[in-house]
Amino acid sequence: MKPELPRETKVPRQGQLLQLNWIRGIAALLVVAYHCEVTMLMPKYFGVGTFPLFKAGHSGVQLFFVLSGFVIYLAHHRDLEGNGSAIARFVAKRFRRLYPSLWIVLVPLIILSFLGFSTRGPSGSDVILSLLILPVKEEVILATEWTLRHEILFYAMFAVFLWNRKIGFGLLIAWGLAGLPLALFDGKGWLIDFIFNNNHLLFLAGVGIAWLYVRGYSASGPFFLFAGLIVFAVTFYFGISKQIPAKAELLLFGLGAAGIIYGVCSMPYLNRQIGPLEKAGAASYVLYLIHYPLISLLVKIAVKLDQSIAVPHAVYFVAILVICQLTAFAFHRLIEAPLLNARSMQNLFVPARTATVASNYQGRAPQIAERKIPAPSSD
Predict the structure, then answer these.
(1) How far apart are CA 257 and CA 88, in angstroms?
(2) Nearest-angstrom CA–CA distance, 90 and 169
């Protein structure tokens, strides 16, 4: 007999959670600023820091992981347990959200790698594993793809949860918590370290705050937002000089991110559209995909220019960030958004008789009128 989930209280909120796009946009820019700073700092380029503040910008990844857990649970917690069509929709949405844009970025990088424009040429297995977003020992083609591999593993675990709540819940908890004691041991091997990475606790934190959110436990939203900002900011400050052990830093950033996301989403008057952040959030995935190779190219150009044009390094830094963001806007508008909205992509993995219904799920969570649960702005 399948377990019955607790009844959820009615939450008097409607519409989409536009706050999530603020967080997406800010998180992506943090990561871009981090990679720009550490790249310009390399001896073969400028060799000096430009904005040391962003040495802790990798915290944007922890924000993304918590946000991912929150959005996935919020978008699919009402899916019928064991329903094949619901699971197929989940898989289709995850596929079209991640893979097409990634392939468009990967293909030219793979070609350039084989032509010798990289420090190490990829093998055939490197190419296949990158295109499928499967575990690898070392990133060879796109350095930032490591986060997507953890995302895919989380989606696989969550698919089990959609199939059977009891088994899936136990599996998710065991999967997340097992990494804590295993982190104390060296020599586990890269695959064990990947499967039981402590980053996975951040997905679970996102699922946990989403579980609280849909049940209406939001009276303390401002407190959680304030506490989350304090934890995140303090960790960020000490993270600049690496004064906190890496594993503790990861968990503290995750804790702060959970407080920020839960607090922001629990305050209805913050649920409003802010043009630049709305656009930045919509293009955040594309920005994450393209920024690292683009930074590598632009820093090389900046070094050449610096030999003949004496301008502060900060000018190059800001210009690189602006170019990355504008390129992401263009990519999203001209390529990613049309792909996501294409009928063939909306009906992917969906039987013909349910294709029309399935298309309504593109880019948003199911609207649940009687529960008044807001949908994430994008999932």
Answers:
(1) 30
(2) 17
pLDDT tens-digit readout, 192-221: 999 999 999 999 999 999 999 998 876 788
The per-type count for the chain, helices as H runs and strands as E runs, is 17, 2
Token pair listed for 62: 């922890």
Q: Is 305 helix (H, G, I), strand (E, B) or coil?
A: helix
Contact yes or no for 56/194 (Cβ under 8 A): no
Check residue 187 and give left, alpha or beta (phi > 0: left; psi -120 to 50: alpha).
left
pLDDT, tens digit, 9 for 90 and up, residues 347-374 = 766 555 444 443 343 334 333 333 355 6
Tell me the C-alpha distance between 335 and 73, whole Å.
Answer: 27
**Is the distance from CB of 61 to CB of 81 less than 8 angstroms?**
no
Burial of 349 (0-12, 13-18, 19+ CB in 10 A): middle
Element at 363 (helix H, strand E): none
User: What pTM value is reported for the model?
Assistant: 0.88
Measured between alpha carbons, how far is 214 from 8 in angstroms, rounded to an integer?
Answer: 7
Give dist(CA 254, CA 247) in Å, integer.
11
Our CA angle for 110, 112, 113, nearest 5°, is 65
